[in-house]
């Protein structure tokens, strides 16, 4: 099995990376009061030294009072947090890597088990985190405009601090995705609507504002998922036509790369084709895509939170799809969380040294 296809360089606008492997964004909650520490910088820098092509940061929240439900999740606003991020990106560059922050607003959330709550209620398109579960307030027009501006200034800060690109978190049931999904968006103004195409308006305005703030040459990645934490099998776009009505406005707004989140990358998106989400997104839009989901592991990540361990598994199917041109980049989560040297082990075929993943790896910044 040749892994050569993973080790071709990739360039798109401001992003120039030495291989096709992306560290998936993974929340770690090691940033007290929202400020990334020297340990956080060292954690990412070890992945850069380990030859990860592109590191995407853990989700880092925008400047809205209730954008987070956890005091230890990093902010992407305020002098102290941005100075922390400057140290992170400098040390990643020093170790030869490239990096983009994942810009995040959680929207309506469950309360965190720590008991910490923000000083304003959670905000979303409606008061719902999932059908039947209310835990916050519906955003006013002013809230929406302020949130869009806050995404834009976070992206501008990413560029100013020297990051190579920016990723917007539009997946997994958080704010942008709450606008996409009819199960959480029951608005009757122009941000709601019966079709996915209509409910894409908030994301379109976010992407446009980000593009306006960063200019044409800075790479914008948008992460999307069909599945929700409350429903792993949910399909918002049930056909390629619906997917086109979802993605094309986002392309027109300025997205360069779609990061297509699945729990298992080999699962086909629609009937009569083995193409996965990233495969369809690339076919429909012609844009570059990132695939993700259980690459190199036997079990998927949501089961990992419930304590299920995973063993290393073959990359053959991934390489087959990549050689076929289904997607451009491959994001890897848990293997890179547990082992900063995963990329080098894959490249050098040191398969006996590959580790699995168990929940203990979450307890510290390895
Ligand atoms: C500990 C942990 C934290 C995560 N946090 C985020 C996050 O902040 N943003 C995000 O988009 N996805 C997050 N994810 C999902 C991962 O980015 C990735 O999509 C998922 O783990 C599947 O990839 P894997 O099978 O290679 O682990 C997280 C996953 C894990 C395991």
From TrEMBL:
Naturally occurring in which organism (per UniProt): Pedobacter panaciterrae
Protein name per its UniProtKB record: NADH:flavin oxidoreductase
Keywords assigned by UniProt, alphabetized: Flavoprotein, FMN, NADP, Oxidoreductase
Pfam families linked to this entry: Oxidored_FMN
InterPro entries tied to this protein: Aldolase_TIM, OxRdtase_FMN_N, YqjM-like
Taxonomic classification: Bacteria, Pseudomonadati, Bacteroidota, Sphingobacteriia, Sphingobacteriales
Cofactor entry: FMN
Membrane-crossing residue ranges in chain numbering: none
Domain NADH:flavin oxidoreductase/NADH oxidase N-terminal: 6-351
């Amino acid at each position: 099995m040749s892994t050569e296809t993973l080790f071709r360089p990739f360039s798109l606008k401001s992003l120039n990376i030495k291989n096709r492997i992306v560290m998936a964004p993974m929340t770690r909650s090691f940033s007290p009061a929202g400020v990334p520490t020297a340990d956080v910088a060292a954690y990412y820098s070890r992945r850069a030294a380990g030859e990860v092509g592109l590191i995407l940061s853990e989700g880092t929240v925008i400047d809205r009072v209730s954008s987070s439900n956890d005091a230890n999740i990093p902010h992407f606003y305020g002098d102290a947090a941005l100075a922390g991020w400057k140290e992170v990106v400098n040390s990643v560059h020093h170790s030869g890597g490239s990096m983009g922050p994942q810009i995040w607003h959680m929207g309506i959330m469950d309360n965190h088990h720590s008991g910490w709550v923000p000083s304003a209620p959670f905000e979303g398109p409606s008061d719902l985190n999932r059908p039947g579960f209310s835990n916050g307030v519906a955003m006013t027009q002013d809230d929406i405009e302020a949130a869009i501006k806050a995404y834009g200034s976070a992206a501008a800060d990413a560029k100013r601090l020297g990051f190579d690109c920016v990723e917007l978190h539009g997946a997994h049931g958080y704010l942008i995705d709450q606008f996409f999904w009819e199960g959480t968006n029951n608005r009757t103004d122009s941000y709601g609507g019966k079709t996915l195409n209509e409910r894409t308006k908030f994301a379109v305005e976010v992407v446009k504002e980000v593009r306006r703030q960063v200019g044409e040459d800075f790479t914008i990645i948008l992460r999307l998922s069909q599945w929700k934490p409350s429903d792993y099998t949910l399909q918002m776009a049930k056909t390629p036509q619906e997917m086109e009505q979802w993605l094309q406005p986002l392309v027109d707004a300025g997205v360069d790369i779609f990061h297509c989140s699945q729990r298992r990358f080999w699962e086909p998106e629609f009937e009569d084709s083995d193409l996965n989400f990233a495969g369809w997104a690339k076919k429909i839009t012609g844009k570059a895509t990132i695939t993700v989901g259980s690459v190199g592991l036997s079990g998927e990540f949501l089961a990992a939170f419930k304590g299920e361990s995973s063993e290393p598994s073959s990359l053959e199917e991934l390489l087959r799809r990549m050689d076929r041109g289904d997607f451009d980049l491959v994001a890897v989560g848990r293997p890179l969380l547990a082992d900063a040297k995963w990329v080098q082990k894959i490249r050098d075929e040191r398969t006996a040294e590959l580790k699995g993943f168990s929940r203990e790896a979450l307890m510290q910044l390895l």
